[in-house]
Amino acid sequence: MGSLLLAVIYLIFISLGLPDSLLGSGWPQMQIAFGVPSSYAGYVSMTISFMTILSALLSPQMIRRYHTKWIVIVSIFLTILGLLGFSVSREYRVLFLFAVPYGLGAGSIDASVNHYVANHYSSSVMNFLHCFYGVGAVISPTIMALALRLARWNEGYRWTSFIQAGILLVVILSLPLWKKQEASDAGQQRDSAGIRETLRVPGVLLTLIAFFSYCAGEATCFLWTPSYFAGTRPDLSAETIAAFGSLIFGGLMLGRLISGFISNRLGDRRLIRIGILVESIGILLVFLPLKGYLAAAVGFVVIGTGMGPIYPAIQHMAPANFGVRYSAAAIGLQMASAYVGSTFMPMVFGHLQQAVGIAVMPAWLLGFAFMNIGMLELAYKKLDRKQKEARI
Prior knowledge:
about 400 residues; Growth Hormone, Chain: A; 17 helices
């Protein structure tokens, strides 16, 4: 029964990854259909992420009141509603209406399932879990590329919503599998701390800034990687450019797959340090002024591979770093901070690239990679100092 539940949780994270890369993959054609500037993708992305921030901030309260399974079911349903809404949109402004359920579904499911896994499973399982998020995020650009070849961008959203509906059905059928953990979780949920109390815990604020930095770089890649190739390699076809939206997600999946095998041996902190080093190497590959697209394409895969273990490792460390009492609120705050980066930074980069050119993207990514590791190292020092004082 336990292994069946874990399989369902993996499927849930595939559903979480499916919508995330559709906007970036489809935007070069959506922009033309709506007749708007390229930077307008940032406003849609910002709206989706803002709603995700809201649901992430509400997640500690929701986790105290409802079991994870009900949060998951409602969240997937909201995502399906958002995807179907995008598929029928004929005007740019209509996207904002359906961006509301699109974003609300993502934050709650992300925070609740991450909290559940961080408290019940190992670091290895957490990395494999986020690897399956990468599976979903790799599938959807392929769906969008197929839709652009056979129909229109609208069908990419519609076909993805059908897959989400199938996953929702599986989750509903799996409800009996969750019962074993419900009783043990109930006590922890009632005793969990609130957001204000958790913010005063040493190291929490620094991890929030680190998460902001990580997701600023990650979300920029999600949204602007196809546009980077469209702007720097104009000879590529629209279908090829859309398919390149899967490069970063393929790298994320690879990085998390590798981390799943080695994370229990290396530990979360060392895994993050190695990940940021690999990410920096990938950014340098994209920097190289070479003809053709191969080096840049490999570079984005390497960037994703390096990013792979960072997100799950920070989430998995929350109970160990801050205690079980604070883990739900800490993870909810981390999710909210992450989506602040996802909300504003792709939009800011959209205006930056419109002013100076899309070729500035590697420098942008490198800056946030350095900020990420800097904040985490400061947080580690605070946490280590607190642990030493507690032993004394």
